[in-house]
Amino acid sequence: MVAYDAIRAGTNYAALVERAGLAERAIVGDEAYSILVGTATCGRAAGALPVLDAFREQVAKAGIEARVMEAGCMGHCYAEPMAVLKRPGYPGMVYHHLNPVIARNLVDNFFLGDDPLLEFFLGATESNELMMPTLMDLPRFGREERRLMRRTGSYDPGDILQAVALGAYAGLARAFELGPESIIAAVNESGLRGMGGAGFPTGRKWAACRAQSERERYIICNADEGDPGAFMDRTILESDPHAVIEGLIIGAIAIGARRGFVYVRAEYPLAVERMRRALDDARRENLLGDDILGAGFSFDVEIAEGAGAFVCGESSALMLSIEGKRGMPRVRPPQSVERGLFGKPTVLDNVKSLANIGPILVAGPENFGDVGTSKSKGTAVFALAGKIVNPGLVEVPMGTTLRELIFDIGGGVPGGKKFKAVQIGGPSGGCLPESQLDTPIDFDKLSAAGAMMGSGGMVVLDEDNCMVETARFFLEFTQDESCGKCTFCRIGTRHMLDILEKIVRGDGSLEDIDRLEELAAEIRDGSLCNLGKTAPNPVLTTLRFFREEYEEHINEKKCRARVCNELTAYYILPDKCARGCDACVGSCPVEAIFTSPKKRIKVIDQSLCTRCDSCRLACPTEYNAVLRISPLVELPAAEPRPDGDKREQS
Amino acid sequence: MTEEEQEVVDWLGEYFQGEDRGKSLITVLLALQERFGYLSRKGMLDVARLMGMSAANVYGVATFYNRFRFNPPGRHQIKVCMGTACHIKRSDKILDHWMRRLEIGVGEVTADREYGLERVACVGCCTLAPVTVVGDEVIGNMSTSKIDGILLGHDLARKQPVAGAPRDTEDA
What we know:
The structure holds 2 protein chains of 2 kinds. By secondary structure, chain A is an alpha/beta fold. In chain A, 38% of the residues lie in helices and 14% in strands. In chain A, the strands form 5 sheets. In chain A, strands 2-1-3-4-5 form a 5-stranded mixed β-sheet, covered by helices on one side. Chain A is globular and about 85 Å long. Chain B is of the alpha+beta class. In chain B, β3 and β4 (137-139) form a beta hairpin. The chains are: A alpha/beta, B alpha+beta.
């Protein structure tokens, strides 16, 4: 094993670190006042920008020398908007669920006064003498292991010196000492596998590209996070773009590339903006461009914006898209490392793979592999969303079970509802039921269970979600996103979607299930890329674990989750309706609810009802009178609407 | 040639003089859409001429990608997220309500060009599902009543008298 000693200051890196240290002290030093507001896309959606403005205004009004900065996301999406406040005598204090009023109060009471307003406090960023509980004391951190997310949310990505002070580009300095062969050896030894979902060993990919005779080579960061339900790549780009840039430069040294690209999908405007800023900063600090850090190596990175096509996450399609063409996967071999972008050898790595590279070189490859399972090393980041108490980003060692992730870290299903399934890996993945929850998370075990690691999106479904309808949703997606090159994918997914639509309408037959299974096998065998090959997975896994729901839709015309519109009716319980209350009438967008002239209770006119769910949500919880009923035969006969009451329909 | 067509031609002529002329077709189309809000027939034909490729090639690429639109967008472009997390939190009902309130379908624009409606695959704010993007603003935890509120807010903003102008007695 190679010995990895501490970084020696060989290049201009030492001077950069020194400047970064000075800048850092001005912000978080003992005498400094500073505010970091989490303004990644998710924070903004929760209202972070008005909070940021409020902090700025109040700090100006109070006349304090405090820097108010924008940071990325710490992964606690359930607690957004969040901010870290730092003042002399205190550790970094994290506050949650902020609004402009609390923000102004924090400045007045915590900065001007000495009251830290603990009622809005989530945790301190570090252990401290005041005995304030830290974020690490939150129950979820008992299972978490933050490596990829080591810096997310704790610095302003618009200030490269802060990133350097927190250790960014230390791996690059180390890379210059090691040289290409040793970099590849280290990455190989770490056991890092492609984090985009495919799990191909990164070191082997780099070695294969390096071995090509063609001198012109490219490296691309795949940030086309197309799986609906996954957002960790977006968070890393918005919160710690320098980790990705560092990985790209090291990769370029290893394979001998002079030009690199970051391919970002169209739906992530803020990620593009922050990445662009980070690239400019890196150029200014001589971390990109000619003669990087005076080490004699030149490399630059440009951003290629996607234009909205799921298939462009596939390597050959992605490269065609950068060339400005339609992104349609091609037959392989030749592999991309032989003939990729513009026909030249190209390495394509996921955001998370690249963000892992720096620490592997700094801490040593054996350190990377000290967590995880034998075949899947390191950590994995999951985006927890759906019916879960604490949604957000979670980073856990490989081998953690789904149950630990969903119930211990995510807090389980809200509202006392029953857990039904977890959807992993987006449209290419599958739905796993309760019985599979003890599956450890790694590339191979998840595939064996019928799901796949995919990009790491994890959406929790409860008893109110229909599995057939969920399968239909994914087929609708893949059918729409199929590029159209392979007949089985283009027409087969359409055919499967038609059948599923028939079943959720209540028009299916038992033969349809057999046909779905046949089509699934044919699409898998007859498609070129993984979009087609894995498109049937959501149907296959739901058939495997939730077949009875398909059969209920077909035989009994019943949707047990009462989701499928054609099989469900809304009904107001006469005993529970409060009579005097008009909440549902006001909420109904189609005026389908009327008051019974005799009993003075509310009744739904089934001929007009669009099943929009508004009345059920509007009905005050103390009455809870609106029911969903499936199958329709169980709907009690309701009294007809009096003639004069009926509105004219246009 | 209409005034707008002339504007497109002039803008493209200038664009191809600049340093971006070596960029890919997608980059050019993105810039064109960024400037004019959509890709017009004249614009695509002109791009084909300037880049020395067939119009079919340009149209083929433009229609392949979801981001390009071929009609002018509304002043408030509404994008309803239809990702997995949004879907299981009933984003279909949210989309239905937008359609019902705006009286247009997906991909359409209201007659007054005030609102356009689109569906998007996923904006990556899954923890705040269901999500709608109004203009540039991502709005989480959408509900049908929130839609009514947004539309009411826009209505009020439009009716707001200019500061200093005499008050309309009818509104008082």
